[in-house]
Design a protein that fits this description.
By secondary structure, the protein is mostly beta strands. It contains three helices and 39 strands.
Length: 555
């Protein structure tokens, strides 16, 4: 069970900020492809990479990705299978700042402008932050397949390299919607995010360790048959490090043999090839440990970190006097337990342990890959702002030199004005404004500065539409945190591309249907006194804009 103490609290949201990226790197690869493709068709390779971001409300959001297909631009009926299987269970909560290399696949040369991603609805497993699971009969999936158009074409060549990034918008209030009957509806919210750095961005990504068995061994490479059922060709150079778990000693490439178990830390070159960073191997199954993970707790008194594992439960990592702490490898934060004062729940770390078989494990080094803070924004000025943490204590962050802010889902519409940001915070009144920030280490002040702030939609309690929608406005009444009735005016943007998502959840004799509502129907559907839930974001003028609206019928 995850510890009850949580310093990063986004409790008003169904889910905190998240993303899923699929990097499609066309180079050399090994498995996948369409069975109907003629043998003479020129082929390129695609690497499927999943990424995400942490959620403060959930210990696990597990899904099995069963199929990923690319759609030919000239004919969408021509689908090419990039991945297909039934064992690729992914915990979306854990995939933050690292990539899950799902598979590599050979696909026909051509131009693709869309993808389809399919999950197994029966595989969805939701575990809340307190460790309690949502019963499977209370989880409904509204559509297990989603098609995503690419904002720029994916042109696959026999020797070229490409990258496509898709965001599973887990921070969207409609991704997981709690219903009045206690059940949850999952609506896949997916969008394409262009990767400005292309394959170089993939080369800079840290990959989640891949587990499997050795299929074959060459002079300077080996093939790993992953636990997802795919084969990865992994190259080895002088920088690759091996550990023989049976002998509990440093090993070598020569120690690998077909059938042995292995856990491999990977890096990807700009040409799409995979290279081994660290390899743990043994005749018996290796312990289920994950060197990278989210920080779930910091125990300064005992000198320990609680870090997530692939079993969705935290593991204690002992911090010794010689444990070195860095931020993104290049900046030093300190050494030993005293450096724990600079870490808290929500950070993403890469831990190098002295012995992976030791209990508890002892950290040789802790590299902070991503530093974050978030929750209720208590106050903001032109020079700094403060996140409220009732148990851990409030944390104030100065604006970094390149500070910017925006609304979740609209990273292209950023502002660098700290004054406008502060105005939106102070104008929010009783609706508790929430946000999340990436932090950078300021060596001069030995403190974390905020490089950005993202306003998260505040999911208000269930209430009712008190004033019917008209002229882009509606009234919404709910019971606030002081158990008082509060009514706010909410604006709904009708501009295409900036509209809030509006859904109607209909219950007909126990059958629940989720229907999207076009802007042309808002006047007929968003009427008083309909039951509803509304998620809003604050505006610098002190008003509120709708991010999402759900109206309930038949409950």
């Amino acid at each position: 069970m995850r510890p009850a103490f949580r310093s990063l609290s986004l409790a008003a949201l169904p889910l905190s900020l998240g993303a899923l990226a699929l990097g499609l790197a066309c180079s050399g690869g090994s498995s996948g492809g369409s069975a109907a493709t003629p043998a003479s068709t020129p082929m390129g390779a695609a690497s499927i990479i999943l990424t995400d971001a942490p959620s403060d409300q959930w210990s696990a959001i597990e899904v099995v990705v069963t199929r990923v297909t690319l759609l030919n631009k000239t004919d969408h009926s021509k689908e090419v299978v990039a991945f297909q299987g039934a064992t690729a269970k992914i915990n979306l909560v854990d995939l933050d700042s690292v990539g899950e290399l799902l598979a590599t696949a050979q696909i026909p040369v051509g131009t693709y402008d869309a993808l389809r991603i399919t999950i197994d609805p029966a595989s969805v497993n939701l575990v809340k932050a307190d460790g309690s699971s949502v019963p499977s009969n209370l989880v409904r999936v509204a559509g297990s397949t989603v098609q995503v158009g690419l904002s720029s074409d994916l042109v696959v060549t026999a020797s070229g390299n490409n990258a496509v990034q898709l965001d599973f918008d887990l921070g969207h209030p409609l991704f997981l919607v709690p219903l009045p009957d206690g059940s949850w509806v999952m609506n896949l919210q997916v969008k394409h995010r262009p990767n400005a750095n292309g394959m170089m961005g993939m080369a800079q990504m840290a990959f989640r360790h891949r587990r499997g068995t050795i299929a074959s061994v060459g002079a300077s490479s080996f093939v790993l048959h992953t636990d997802s059922g795919n084969d990865l060709t992994v190259n080895v150079d002088a920088g690759s490090w091996f550990f023989d778990a049976d002998a509990k000693a440093v090993g070598s490439l020569a120690g690998l043999a077909p059938g042995k178990n292995a856990l491999v830390s990977l890096r990807m070159q700009a040409d799409g090839s995979l290279w081994a960073v660290r390899v743990w191997y043994g005749a018996n199954a290796l312990p289920g440990w994950t060197p990278e993970g989210h920080v779930y707790g910091v125990d300064q008194a005992m000198g320990r970190l609680l870090v997530s594992t692939n079993a969705s439960t935290p593991r204690a990592i002992a911090i010794d006097a010689d444990t070195a702490f860095t931020f993104r490898t290049s900046q030093t934060l300190g050494t030993g337990p005293a450096a724990l004062a600079n870490l808290w729940t929500g950070f993403k770390v890469q831990v190098e342990v002295k012995d992976p078989l030791q209990v508890p494990m002892h950290a040789k080094s802790v590299n902070i890959q991503r530093a974050v803070d978030g929750g209720v924004i208590k106050a903001a000025t032109a020079t700094s702002f403060t996140y409220q943490h009732l148990l851990a204590g409030d944390r104030m962050h100065a604006y970094a030199n390149a500070f910017s802010w925006w609304y979740l889902g609209f990273p292209g519409a950023t502002s660098g004005s700290s004054g406008a940001f502060a105005a939106a915070v102070t104008g929010a009144g009783d609706v508790r404004v929430q946000g999340v920030s990436d932090l950078v280490w300021n060596g001069g002040t030995s403190a974390w500065d905020a490089s950005n702030a993202i306003f998260l939609p505040v999911a208000l309690p269930q209430g009712a539409i008190s004033t019917s929608y008209s002229g882009g406005q509606m009234g919404f009444t709910f019971t606030n945190s002081t158990v008082a009735t509060q009514t706010i005016s909410v604006s709904l943007n009708t501009v295409v591309g900036a509209q809030p998502v509006v859904l109607e959840v209909v219950n007909q004799a126990g059958t629940v249907t989720v229907l999207p509502l076009d802007a042309s129907t808002w006047g007929a559907k968003l009427v008083s006194p309909a039951k509803a839930r509304v998620a809003v974001v604050p505006k610098p003028d002190g008003s509120f804009a709708a991010y999402a609206v759900v109206v309930f019928t038949g409950f």
